[in-house]
Amino acid sequence: MTSSQDEIWLRDYEPDDAQATIDIFLRAIREVASRDYDPAQIAAWAKVEDAEIWGQYRASRPTWLAMIGSTPVGFTDLKADGCLDMMFVSPDHQGKGVASLLLAMVEKAARKKGLQRIFTEASLTARPFFERKGFTVLAAQKVEKRGQTLSNFLMEKALA
Ligand SMILES: CC(C)(COP(=O)(O)OP(=O)(O)OC[C@H]1O[C@@H](n2cnc3c(N)ncnc32)[C@H](O)[C@@H]1OP(=O)(O)O)[C@@H](O)C(=O)NCCC(=O)NCCS
Fold it and tell me: With a cut of 50, which residues of the chain have pLDDT below it?
């Protein structure tokens, strides 16, 4: 049964959310994306060297948190050029529509700004999610992270 305690709701990122978003980021990579990348790649990706710099990045663009009750369970953002930079959902709350709700917010904000399209560099893990949501692959890419080479996909969605 769905109770109000299971409902997912969104709010804007606040400065105090740096650690919660770091925890979601690290766990989503280590426990979910780890099925698609090898341990050395995961170790290189799942690193946050400076929580303060992390917080500055999150606060530098609109960033939204998905909440269940008072617990942050996911986050996303939208840069001024239409780049959706981050999309991470807690391993404890996968497959519940958290990313769907976050993406709907990104699309709404992008339309409001008059953007014609949004784009992202999707992990192997996230590609099926973005395809399901109407994104198409523009290019398969290899990116360097701390000495490791990781595959991802440049994907875009036109906004009608
Ligand atoms: C990709 C991710 C953000 C999806 O989050 P989520 O909250 O579980 O996604 P949702 O529950 O909103 O799923 C929405 C739809 O996408 C589909 N989907 C999500 N992940 C999928 C996957 N790996 N394979 C196939 N379909 C997938 C769901 O089945 C659902 O389809 P439906 O509408 O037909 O039911 C999440 O799995 C994640 O955090 N992954 C690890 C971190 C990562 O790689 N982030 C992206 C960095 S670019």
Answer: none
